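I hope you will forgive my troubling you with a question about protein structure. The matter concerns a single protein, recorded as an amino acid sequence and a row of backbone structure tokens. Please examine both parts with care and let me know of anything in them that strikes you as inconsistent. Thank you for your consideration; the sequence and its tokens are set out here:
***
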Amino acid sequence: MRTMSDQGSSEREQPSLSSSLPLSGECVTFTGTLASMVHREAGDLVELNGGRAVQSMSGSVSMLVVGEEGWPLEEDGAASQKLTHATQLTADGADIRIVAESDWLHLINLIERRDEIHRSYTPAMLQTLLGVPGNVIRRWARIQLIRPVRVVGRCPYFDYREVASAQRLARLLDEGVTPERLENSLSELSRTLAGTDRSLAQLTLLVQDEKVLMRDAHGVLIPRTGQRLLDFDTTPDLSLHCGDDDVSPTEREAADDGREAGPAPSSDDDQLATLSLAEARLRLDDRSMSEWTADEWFSEGCRLSEEAAFDSAVNAFRNCLSLLASEHALLRDSQLFSAEESGPACPDPADVNFHMADALYRSGKTEAAIERYHCATEFAPDFIEAWTQLGCLQTARQNWQLAEEALITAISIHDGNPDALLHYAQLLDQMKRNDDAVVYWEKYLHHDSRGPWADHARGRLEEAAQTASGAVER
């Protein structure tokens, strides 16, 4: 099997790169969903670059390109038929190069398209491209299922392929594909494609749901939802292994014995605690809600919001803020405790207000949402997403000046934030300031060249060019 590391030797066999098209003599086929284009366009590019594009895998194929929008997994969780066939053919001695979409784009010198795949995206952009709600993306980030590549003005940016992979795996699990089948498929992919280890890690996190809890420095949580269940101060010995939600009296007795005699659990980050959810819920039910921490109320608010129980979510966030205010007052007025002695880290009030604002808006309480977004910016003046949301809500209410002030503030914090640029360009269009809008459509397109809004931006620039051309002719 040829890999990209063999590319140099293959190219040296050619008399002259300048006299030969990059895919000259290659027979190419594609598998999986391409992130940069549709298969038909990719086939046309193969032909333009001297190769021959075919639909099916056979012994005549010399290159298989693997799409990077998620992994090439079938609906049953197996690796794609083309990839499986290619692996079998290479085992029989066929000379087939299996390359990732990015490497193929580099090979035909479409550097811009390759860079688009590796460009990082905000939650709002991913919501449009992948159809993953923004609050779900934030929940995935909280449990480290996905990791931001950077954070600017409190706005996280994510790798597109990592989020697409998490979405694909989560959907297949929800549809009943077994974790073992997915693990086998990903292990097969790892032999031909780099980056599969991260998808295996994502799978490990996803399959913890409904089976075991995750333990970190701040307590125990459900991996899928991020909801905190127990405080380590009252947690029993967590060495009890249980894969079912039904907990027997013997198991409960064993857990109680462990609580009395066992050593305190370690607080190392990301250590797994194999306590069943049913056992944890039984113990949680013994605690009154009056004993919940601010962190537990925040997680509960996020969970309720994701389930569209917005009024209950708002109440949970209020309880969280009330506890935060009480703890702040205690630390301020008491000389007995230092910040380090005050317990695990609490939710950021700016984040709590931001999530409450979202719940209020989604429940139809726009004025209250606006006020909470303002609260978020008061706690964190560099909160780009809060300023952008303020601009959107004020635009919807046709408060043009307030909308422009909010969006300009967001852009001044980071002038490369695509969401702020997009909404400001839309606002300028609504205000009939077309020349100003064109400038910001151009800036937006520089940072986001994919998806429906990118197509809209290109259309607006074409309209502006035609208008300018007509004016010159007259």
